[in-house]
Amino acid sequence: MRLTLIKIKVYLSHFLPLEIVGPVAVIFSLEGVIDGLFTQFVPMQYETFGWFVLFLVSIFFISYVRINDEETVEDINESLEEIRESQDDTTQ
Fold first, then answer.
1. Which residues contact 27 (CB under 8 A, 6 or more apart)?
2. Which residue segment(s) compose the domain that 57 sits in?
């Protein structure tokens, strides 16, 4: 179970580094613009759900772009292999 949590942490830190999270934060800071679009197209009772969907779409888009890079996939496999080796060392 602990190795699974470590894997998730490695994936998140690799696919969503600070240089990616920063621009996403800027986009979400444009709340007034996005809120104006929401009031036109999304009913008020679904506003929170709309923000949630927008957040998920941005996360999946960023992850999709990052996972299709062969160098990135190699880097994450190396990181996971190092974690497995360190786990093996601590269990012995």
1. 58
2. 2-71
Query: In this structure, is residue 84 part of a structural domain?
Result: no
> Residue 5 class from Cβ within 10 Å (0-12 exposed, 13-18 middle, 19+ buried)?
exposed
Considering its fold, how many domains does the chain have in total? Answer: 1
Whether the Cβ atoms of residue 76 and residue 17 lie closer than 8 Å to each other: no
Q: What is the pLDDT of residues 10-66, one digit of tens each?
A: 777 776 666 667 667 767 777 777 778 778 888 888 878 888 888 888 778 777 776
Cβ neighbors of 16 (< 8 A, separation 6 or more) are 59, 62, 63
